[in-house]
Structures are given as C-alpha cells and as structure tokens.
Protein: Polyprenyl synthetase family protein
Organism: Pseudodesulfovibrio alkaliphilus
Amino acid sequence: MNELLRYFQRELPGINGYLDAEAESLSGLVRDVARHIIGSGGKRIRPMLTLLHARALGYDRDDFHAIACALELLHSATLLHDDYLDEAEIRRGRAASHLVFGRTETILAGDALLALANEMGARYGNARLCWLLARGIMETAVGEIEEIQFSKHPTLDREAYMRIIIGKTARLIECACRCGAALAGATPEQEDAAGEYGLNLGIAFQLVDDALDYDSPASETGKPEGGDLREGKVTLPLILFMEDCEEVAGDTLLTLMRDSELTDEQCAEVLAQVQDAGSAGRTREEAAVYVERAKACLALLPPGEERTVLGQAADYVLTRTK
Amino acid sequence: MNELLRYFQRELPGINGYLDAEAESLSGLVRDVARHIIGSGGKRIRPMLTLLHARALGYDRDDFHAIACALELLHSATLLHDDYLDEAEIRRGRAASHLVFGRTETILAGDALLALANEMGARYGNARLCWLLARGIMETAVGEIEEIQFSKHPTLDREAYMRIIIGKTARLIECACRCGAALAGATPEQEDAAGEYGLNLGIAFQLVDDALDYDSPASETGKPEGGDLREGKVTLPLILFMEDCEEVAGDTLLTLMRDSELTDEQCAEVLAQVQDAGSAGRTREEAAVYVERAKACLALLPPGEERTVLGQAADYVLTRTK
C-alpha cells in the first residue's frame, strides 16, 4: 500500500486547499456550514478517483481540481440534507451541521454546495463532463429518496438493499471515475471501464461501511456503534442475520424498527446477536467479490503509478477500519 | 396584447404537458410533491422566454422543451425549499407543499427537481447551455441565501434590496433568455442582449410582485395581502414609504419586523399607511423604467412574431394583477 499512501500524501493538500478556497467563496450565511462539513475530514475518495483515472488515461494538465472537488462538494451537499432529514446528531465525530448552525443555514448550504459543484463541473466547456455530473447528481438524489422511502417500509429484500446502496453511494463513485476519464478525453470503452471500476468499488465501499456499523467501535469510526439499527436502517449484516432467524422474529424486529420503537436494550441485544453470528464478516466477504470485479476493470488501463494506486485503493476498501 | 395571448395559448399546452411528464418520471416519494407544485399553475414565464428567444434567433427545431422546462423546474425547486424555510402556508392559492406532504418529502422533492432540471439542460450536449444553467442555479442559490440573511437583519437600504431581487428573481429570468439564445447558437452579442432583456424584465417583474403584495387583494394573487410585511420582508413599497417617515418610526418598525413582533393590528395599520402613501404605485413607476430598458434590448432581434411577443410580454409585466 506504499504507492497509495504516497499518492494521497502528495495530492491531498492540493485537493483540500482547493476545497477550502471554494468554501471560502460562498456567501456569509452558508460559509461556516460549508467549512464545517468540508473541514470535518472525509477520505476524499471521490476527488482522488477522478484524478487517478484522468492521469491513468494520459491527462497531464493541472486543472483537474474543479471537477475532482465538485464530486466531493456534491457528496458534502447530500450529507448536509441527509443528516438534517435523518435528525442525525454526529457526522465524522463532530456535531451534525444542523445542530451547530440551524435548519435554514444547513438546507441552504446544501443547495449552495450542490449549485457550486455543478458550476465547477461546467467550467471546462466539456459537454460530456456536464452530462456525467448532471446524471450523477440525479442518480444521487434518486438514491437518497429511495433510501428514505425504504426506511419507512423496511424489508429484508436484498435486491432492494442493493438498489439503494448503488443509488446512494456507488453511482456517485462511478461518476467520479467517469469524470476523470471524460476529462482525459477517453474513448467510450475506456470511460465505461472506469465507470465499472467505480460502480463495483462503490458497492464494496458501502458494504464495508455497513459492516463497520456493526463491528467497529465508535471511537474508530466517529459514528455510534449500531447506529443503523437504532435509526431503523436495514443493511446487509442485519439481512444476513435475519435470513437465519425465524420469520416471526424478523417481522417483529422490522415492525419495531419501522415504528422507531426499538428500546436501547433490544438494540444492544440484536447488535450482540448480529456480531456473534459473524454477519459483518460475511458482508465483507461479499464486498471482496466486488473489489475483485473492480480490479478486473483496471486491465484496460496502461500500466503505471495510477493503475497500481487504483488497485491498492480497491484493496484498501476491504481493510479500512473507519 | 393579442399576439402575446395567442402565443401563450398555442405553446402552453406543450410546455405543461412536458412538465407533467417529467414530474411523472420521478420517484414515488417525491412525485406527488412535484405534481403539486407544478400543477398549481404559475405563469411559465421562464420556459416561454427561452422558447421566444430561441425562435427569435432562428431556432426551428422542436426539441426546445427540455431546456425551457428545466428553468421552470429550477424555479419550482427553489419555491419548495423557500416555502419550507419561510414556513409559508400558501403558494398560488393552495396549501404549501410541506404542509401537505411533510418536511422530508418537500426538501427531497426540491433536490430532485433541481437535479432533474440540471439533467434536462445537459441533454443537448451543448457546453454553453450547461454553463449558463449551472451559473443560473448558482446565482439563484446565492440570491436565496442573501434574501434570508437580509430578512434576519432588515434595513431600508435600496442597494441591498436591488441586489436581492436581482439574485432571487432576475438572474434566473436572464438565464432563461440566455439559454434560448445559446440553444439557437447565437453570437455573444445576441446572447448578451437576450440576457440584458431578461435581467431588466426580471427586475421589473419582482418590483411589480412587491407592489402587488401591497395593493392587490388576496383573492386575485392567491397570497395573503401584506404578506411580505407580516413575514418581515422589507421590499421597495415599504422602503419608499419609510423614506418619508421619521427615522425613529422606521427603526422601531424594522426591529419589530426582525423580531417577528408585529401584531396583526400594527400590520394592518402599516399596510393601510403604505397604501395611502401610494408607495405601490411609485414602485410600479420604477418597474416601468426597467421595462423600457428591457424593450430597448429587442432592437438587436430580427423583426417577427417573437420580437412582437417579447415586447408585449414586457408591457404585460406592468399591467398584471396577479
């Protein structure tokens, strides 16, 4: 993983500096919200993937930051609206924005970041890039809606779960990779391979995220352990666990989750059972399949530093602890 | 105004049909919200301006609906978020969406309509169109933020007022006109003239809107009379009225408005005073200046039906009663 680490260490300051400068350019009422969500860290996976694909496909100019950072801001915008609507209290170990800055500021900051991201993507005069970004925004909005709809009527349907994680996470990561390819003027085949890598990586990323929610301590992730369960979110670890349970027990649990009637004791009990059953580990095994699919897409790229780093990034998704 | 009426009667069914079909394509949770806000009427000024400018500059294809309707959906998206944040109860004579469908559905519908609008604009593979739309979205978001910021610290500053109505209304109308020109492959000079027409028309439109709030009965506008005053919004009729009052009276009123402490009786009294002083009429006189500026921009267009209609549309802004 040395190449991956070196690459991130080299490029992250530029990406963070660009993000900070864009946040600084926003209007007073929302600037602090933007600073808060951007400054709270995050792995900058989306901008890095755009950069890596652009360079892997021969792009050698230094003006990649606007489109790369657009993807990060888009992601930040959805976090702001999601956290407000979910009434989340914590984001990346810090108080959620709506609790610090208020409802109006948070909603409008989400709108402004979305608008800014879009404008940054349009700076290149590249119609393909605009189209990809527009579609990415659309798919992310739809994914967000479907996730909330699903949480109002939770089921143990794996197909529905997959559709939701693709919509809310994987499509935007696919978009980041495609944008890198489009910036480099890639062929449709090359762009599709970049997209396929991103889609599979995104699925694996979310599967691991959902596993971490069950098996990683809050001190590591910055999120409360078992948070999904408490918030009534049905994810793969729970689905795998319930598949081995009595049907009646599953229905009862779903009803309690839907009606937000799960007590702290019941939560702790289900959490312990899911952990004992090893469902988080089985979720990681599924993620590993998608990581392999992602890596297979790299064969189309010319060998070089970026291809190596993209391979290591895929492996890192499986081993990350936060 | 015969040409204007005929043009609208001929083109509105196509525009409304396209809007309905796009709303129908949205995900379940937000579809009803989109139907509600789109179906509640509205003058469709933005799509008509896009169409008129495109055709005036020689565009003869029938695929203008996506970009024209994108502007309307963008406008609808901002109404949804604005009404929720303002806690507005009425929109176009109907209950505001958040009261009918709830907070989550309304915020997400706004996000989805914004995303959809953006995607519709990207369908042409025209980078200039994408850039214009992206900038229009950005300017509208900034305008929305500045308006809310201003309402938290209201002043009788005309410059601040003008900046706000340009941001929240006129820039998007400018954008609609520029998009029509860009669709037709206009020269930069032609696009600038279209933009200048739209900017001035948009300013006039908002000035008249603010006058109507003081001098048109609720039965006509579908909004409660004196609503701006009650909501603490400082607009030109009030600024003009206060310029003739004692400074102390103005400061007291502003403080009451900012703290939402204006009683119904005080509201009714100020409303009557503003009406008696003829401030709404003086606001219309200012609007007339911008209407003339807008009409002057039409000289660059070739004579024809669209140029006539654009001239009549500018005049109509002054005479409308809702």
